Amino acid sequence: MNKRKFLQALVATGVTSGGVILVAQRLLRPGSPPAPAIGTATVPAFDPAPELVVSNPQEEFELVMLQENELHPGFKHSEREKQQSEVVIEQLPNETLDEYLEKIRNFDADFKTDIFLNETNQKVLLPTLARLDRVQNFVGHANFNLIGFEETLYFARNYTEIGKFEAAELAFIEEIFNADAKSYGFFGEKITPELNNRVNQKDVQKIAGSGHYLIKGESLTHYQQIKKDVGDELTLTSGIRNNIKQMHLFLAKAFQSDGNLSRASRSLAPPGHSFHGVGDFDVGKIGMGESNFTADFSQTPEYQRLIRLGYVDIRYTDTNTFGVRYEPWHIKVSEHEDCCHNHV
Ligand SMILES: [Zn+2]
Question: What is the CATH architecture of 3-28+51-331?
Answer without folding.
Answer: 2-Layer Sandwich (3.30)
